[in-house]
Amino acid sequence: MKKVKVFLAQLSTQLGDVKGNEEKILKAIEMAKKEKAYIFVTPELSTLGYGSGDIYLDKVDENLISLDRIRKEVDDFYAIIGYVEKDSYGFFYNSACLIHDKKIIGNYRKVQLVNYRLFDEKRYFKRGTKLDVFNIGGIKIGILICEDVWFPEPSRAMALRGADLLIVLGASPYERFKKEIWEDFLVQRARDNIIPLVFCNQAGCQDGVTYLGYSMYVSASGNILKTGKLLEEDYVIAIVDLEEAKRLRRRDTRLRELRKDILEELLKAYEEMENGGS
Question: Rounded to an integer, what distance in angstroms lies between the CA atom of residue 253 and that of residue 233?
Fold first, then answer.
């Protein structure tokens, strides 16, 4: 497949309003079906809503029941839904599940949890440790959640595992220069790894916090080719070119010139930092 149609549902979900969020997701799924999209994406934690508060401790089971209803509406396309996962120990994760043909076929747990200013993720969630890629009909995708893409390592690991496309779910609030910050990070990750990338962010306002919106498609060459509206709900359809990365990598040798001894040196430097520079 040379190109793939991706539907980004830039929704304004509300923290704790599981039923209302489900209705928005199902409406967007119907729109994606009419567009014959191959991949459908929601923002981070879209079933339960993003925010800070112990409501996460009370609504997780309701969010899982909602996810199960959403699953049954996904047929011959691939849907990536942000939700709160619960493991067999009862621990919660900020996760995204991959659904196809009414079945959950993959799952990703956010690896870089956020705890500054209004964010309090470490109070509620356990961090993920895996950076898998998923094969969807011959296309390999990597899934990242918000802050994960601000660090270079997760994207690089997925690129090395053969990802053709990175898909980022976000719930990033609006603040001065935040639009430019997201542009810089997403373009840099695309250029670092010579890979196309799509970003689906939350929009709207809740509890005095306004979310940025501004979902986007960045090509493998690092060009921003499509964006969603700022601050308000929007639906972005991106036709992602999967061949450009292969063409570019024939001339740009950075991935295949990556050196194991340099990666080992990086790990040594990390351990030195963890030990206080000794």
Answer: 39
For residue 277, give every residue at least 6 positions away whose Cβ sits within 8 Å of its Cβ, in sequence order, or none: none
Cα separation, 237 vs 176, whole angstroms: 27
Contacts of 160 (CB under 8 A, 6+ apart): 255, 258
Tokens 């942000």 sit on residue: 82
Half-sphere exposure of 51 (CA within 13 A, CB side): 23
> Please, are residues 136 and 100 in contact by the beta-carbon 8 Å criterion?
yes
Q: Residues 77-130: pLDDT tens digits?
A: 999 999 999 999 999 999 999 999 999 999 999 999 998 877 889 999 999 999
Please tell me the pTM assigned to this model: 0.96
Maximum Cα–Cα distance across the chain: 60
What residues are labeled active site?
A: 44, 110, 146
Whether the CB-CB separation of 179 and 212 falls below 8 Å is answered with yes
